[in-house]
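Entry for the shared binder. Reason: the reviewer on the internal report wants the predicted structure included alongside the sequence.
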Amino acid sequence: ASSGAAITISGASNQSTVDRTGPVLVSSAVNTSGAAVLTFSETLGATGPSASAFTVTVDGVTLTVTGVSIDGSTVTIVTNPKIEAGKAVSIVYNAPSSNTATSNSAIQDATGNDALGATFTVLSTNNASTYDPTPPTRTGSEVNDGGKLVITYSETLATPGPDASQFTVTI
């Protein structure tokens, strides 16, 4: 025969740590290589969005997104041409329909919580790009007191400069 005893648990609490929140943008910048870098609030899953999920615009011109990579909590977006030094950038992320699978093509955390689609702005002050697409132009030339030909350009040239064998001087 059953005694019908009941068990009562008092003082119990739910210690569940199930993550139900998608990653949130913490910062946006352009790295020295001229790529956009979006940093999120948590480590991202390995499967991420394709290049077609992003539209990158600089000075009203849409750049071609050629690659997207994820490393930790950052998404790096590579464009052609590269993002120029000192420019502000607009990045539109077109998120797919929300899906808790960790295999969908979205910016998402390791448990499958998707980031929302949004427009991200990189201010020119957060642009560390060293990419300069404008070639220097010759602004002048003269023979100095030491008899050397000095050619002046519109910007500082990279060093070392060209070898002397690359020049022909006709007098």
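Summary line for the report: The mean pLDDT is 89.
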